[in-house]
TrEMBL record:
Binds 1 [4Fe-4S] cluster. The cluster is coordinated with 3 cysteines and an exchangeable S-adenosyl-L-methionine. S-adenosyl-L-methionine binds at E158, R177. PANTHER family: 3-METHYLORNITHINE SYNTHASE, BIOTIN SYNTHASE. It is an enzyme of class 2 (transferase). This is Iron-only hydrogenase maturation rSAM protein HydE. (3R)-3-methyl-D-ornithine binds at S133. One of its GO terms (biological process) is sulfur compound biosynthetic process.
């Protein structure tokens, strides 16, 4: 097993069977995390990039079985920020020191191309990078957002197991999901994707496929988080994912994709009080604090136990900055684009 970790650290390649072996064997987890941390330090340095998350609408036309924002959830109070509120939250984030904002929402058709491009253009004037996380769109829509000034796009594949995906995401097509990622890459976005760990019916083999898929499409950012069952969804009684397995998937992803950006996901901290710091020491180099203000933080209820829902953006910024500095890591001052390293040696 140590040989496999060494191979991954030095060559950044593993076969599917080798990934499965690593995921199944917990004896050498510490060595795995330390190797991922060394690769992170060598390729992307010690700086941690902060991305300010603006959750601007919890209205969604999709009905994914694992998600609290699903269309059929009648127990959630829905909201939709006005364009000027979104722009204002972005201004406040910029004033706090963020160099990237992430505009995230359910698939809410109110925010059509015309409205979204206006918002993007206004925020772009703040000298800030923009990441969108607003779901499946047409190539034309993605192109319009890119031309308006969007830099990055997050769209998790969730799982590369087509059958499982289409079971958990009713009336959605796995092929279309992949088409979106391909279009985004071709249009020049930095592309973020990722998977949920611990979905009911998911196998270790399919998780290994997920990791190889990230490498195959040469994603620029990978977000890995545990599936946390939401009481307002059909999967409320399922077991959910573990912190340890999520961390291992993240670490192996770092070993195989040494120069990409990997967030210490917020869901990890729901399962472990020091989850994000542990992740930052196991391969991660990005944190995405919430810069949404007021009650909306609570209402964007993807899963239960979401952290920091009663905090202000200013408190979150100083809190996470303090935590990151406490482990000897500085906060990055640039926009945080992926710096591709040509030589993988």
């Amino acid at each position: 097993m140590l040989e496999l970790i060494k191979k991954a650290e030095e060559t950044h390649t593993l076969s599917k069977n080798e990934i499965v072996e690593l995921l199944k064997d917990d004896q050498y987890n510490d060595e795995l995390f330390k190797a991922a941390d060394r690769v992170r330090k060598k390729y992307v340095g010690d700086e941690v990039h902060l991305r300010g998350l603006i959750e601007f609408s919890n209205i969604c036309k999709q009905n994914c079985l694992y998600c609290g924002l699903r269309r059929d959830n009648k127990n959630i109070k829905r909201y939709r920020l006005k364009p000027e509120q979104i722009i204002n939250f972005a201004k406040n984030a910029r004033n706090l020191g963020y160099r990237t904002v992430v505009l995230q929402s359910g698939e809410d058709d109110f925010f059509n191309v015309e409205r979204m491009t206006k918002i993007i253009k206004s925020i772009k004037q703040l000298d800030i990078a923009i990441t969108l996380s607003i779901g499946e769109k047409t190539r034309e829509e993605y192109k319009a957002y890119k031309e308006a000034g969007a830099d990055r796009y997050l769209l998790r594949i969730e799982t590369t197991d087509k059958e499982l995906y289409e079971k958990l995401d009713p009336n959605m097509s796995h092929e279309n999901r992949k088409r979106c990622l391909k279009d985004l890459k071709e249009l020049g976005y930095e592309v973020g994707t990722g998977c949920l760990i611990g979905l009911p019916g998911q196998t270790i083999e399919s998780i290994a496929d997920d990791i190889l898929f990230f490498k195959e499409i040469d994603a620029d950012m990978i977000g890995v988080g545990p599936f946390i069952p939401n009481p307002d969804t059909p999967l409320k009684n399922e077991k959910g994912g573990t912190f340890e397995l999520s961390l291992k998937v993240m670490a192996i992803t770092r070993l195989l994709m040494p120069d990409i950006n990997i967030p210490a996901t917020t869901a990890m901290e729901t399962l472990n009080v020091n989850g994000r710091l542990i992740a930052l020491r196991s391969g991660a180099n990005v944190v995405m604090p919430n810069v949404t203000e007021g009650e909306y933080r609570k209402l964007y209820a993807l899963y239960p136990g979401k952290i920091c829902i009663n905090d202000t953006p200013a408190h979150c910024f100083s809190c996470i900055t303090g935590k990151i500095n406490s482990i000897g890591r500085p906060i990055a001052k640039d926009y945080g684009y992926r710096k591709k390293v040509m030589s993988k040696k």
